[in-house]
Amino acid sequence: MAARSGDGPSEASAGEVPDVIAAAVERVRRSLPPGGAPHAMGGVCPAARALAVAALTGGRDAVVVVVPAERDAEDLVAGLELLAEGTPAAALPAEAVEGYLGRTPPLGATAAAATALAALAEGRVRILVVPARLLPFPLPEPASLPGRAPLVRPGDTLDPETFARTLADAGYRRVEVVEEAGDLAMRGQVIDVGTPDRFARIVLDVDSVEAVHEFDPETQRSGAAIPGLAVPPLRLFPCDDGARTRVAARLEHAGYAAAAAAALAGGDPAQWEGFLGWTEPHAAAWRLAPTLVVCEREAVRGEIDRSLQALRRARETLAGEGTLLPAPDEWLLTADECLGALAAAHRIEGLALEDGTGWARVTTAPTPNLAARPQALIDELRAGAAKRRSQALVAAATGETQRRLHHHTQAE
Questions:
Q1: What is the mean pLDDT of residues 206-210?
Q2: How far apart are CA 38 and CA 61, in angstroms?
Q3: How far apart, in whole angstroms, are the C-alpha atoms of residue 314 and residue 57?
Q4: Interatomic CA distance for residues 3 and 278, integer angstroms
Q5: What are the tens digits of pLDDT across the range 19-63?
Q6: Per-residue pLDDT tens for 348-401?
Q7: If 0-12 CB within 10 Å is exposed, 13-18 middle and 19+ buried, where does residue 177 land?
Q8: Are the CB atoms for 346 and 56 separated by under 8 Å?
């Protein structure tokens, strides 16, 4: 990491670059009008959204930030890791809630979404970034996720088959050998499980937990003992007998008998798993935190409209193949409902706001990618130094820092 003010380049001290970033965030914050009403910022290019979010969300409350697309969510989380280091952020994968794929949503996506929501409930995530296409879908209440993670500790009583059914309902798959997250294997008095966080081995003495160890999935060798293991759900909503019965009743009442029968039997989850949020306790994305921010409201509107149209087409395709499922309009929120909720949010826009909204101008501009053009990068830094700007150059690794310092020293 290198820093530069108006003189030559130098390697930054531990606090130098964070101080530059904190000063930039504070300048943006001071540009906002006083009061608690929702604020609006214009002139914020996509690369500067993290700066604007950090300025808007300086308090301790959790925040939901709505962005147009999944790539925007990933970029914003990466930016917040740099600009708001003490404010942990996570993004919800857009594909975690699809109900018309002809298959169940990808397990990695549902696991990542469940993990992010549980972390929000526990305070380990304070900024939740949500792509627009998720807005019409019901999501589980974050507080419900930690309670669905069974805790296993030495000395506990544990029935292996009941434990296996619980984990199967949570999305874990039974295998011979655990090699990746989501796997569950049982061999006599040993239960191996791969969670999103670790690989753990539970050793039983008949129906009592004798020990819990970490293990290496490559060598299958046990490692250090751990005091306990919480096994987080990989599905967003419960999938036990009660949940399947409830969604089956709703599907039957709505006229989708085949999907209802599949839910009752626990077969072909592609016909019913995506609709669990229809009957289980849920919340809209904008109700997951007390503070709401929307980036590029009109682009968000367009993404919602496009995603709902795509869902309708996908449902028609499945119907043409003989799979009848509820239409999106029967169980999802409408675009108008989503946009109505966003009307009360803080706004971050790339252009000037010309709809009568009071707004603060933040002058930002995208910087060209100069990573492979050292001379152009030097020229850019020189131009900034001539204007007495405080500049921070962040490198991905120590070796990259040394190369940049060498280039800049030669240029001087």
A1: 93
A2: 15
A3: 38
A4: 52
A5: 777 777 888 888 777 766 788 888 888 888 988 898 888 767 899
A6: 998 876 666 667 777 776 666 666 677 777 787 788 778 776 666 666 567 777
A7: exposed
A8: yes
Averaged pLDDT, 318-332: 95
pTM of the entire structure? 0.83
Q: Is the dihedral of CA 354, 359, 365, 371 positive or negative?
A: negative
Mapping DSSP onto H, E and C, the string for the chain reads CEEECCCCCEECCCCHHHHHHHHHHHHHHHCCCCCCCCCEEECCCHHHHHHHHHHHCCCCCCEEEEECCHHHHHHHHHHHHHHCCCCCEEECCHHHHCCCCCCCCCHHHHHHHHHHHHHHHHCCCCEEEEEHHHCCCCECCHHHCHHHCCEECCCCECCHHHHHHHHHHCCCEECCCCCCCCEEEEECCEEEEECCCCEEEEEEECCEEEEEEEECCCCCCEEEECCCEECCCCCCCCCCHHHHHHHHHHHHHCCCHHHHHHHHHCCCHHHCHHHHHHCCCCECHHHCCCEEEEECHHHHHHHHHHHHHHHHHHHHHHHHCCCCCCCHHHHCCCHHHHHHHHCCCEEECCCCCCCCCCCEECCCCCCCCCCCCHHHHHHHHHHHHHCCCCEEECCCCHHHHHHHHHHHHHHC
Tokens linked to 80: 């917040």
CA 93 – CA 285 distance, rounded (Å)? 13
Enumerate residues 6+ apart whose C-beta is below 8 A from 357.
40, 347
409 vs 309: CA distance, rounded Å: 56
Alpha-carbon distances, residue 165 vs 212, 230, 295 (angstroms)? 20, 16, 42
Q: Which two tokens stand for residue 142?
A: 């974050």
What pLDDT is stored for residue 159 in this prediction?
Answer: 94
Residue 251: predicted pLDDT: 97
In contact, 236 and 114? CB cutoff 8 Å? yes
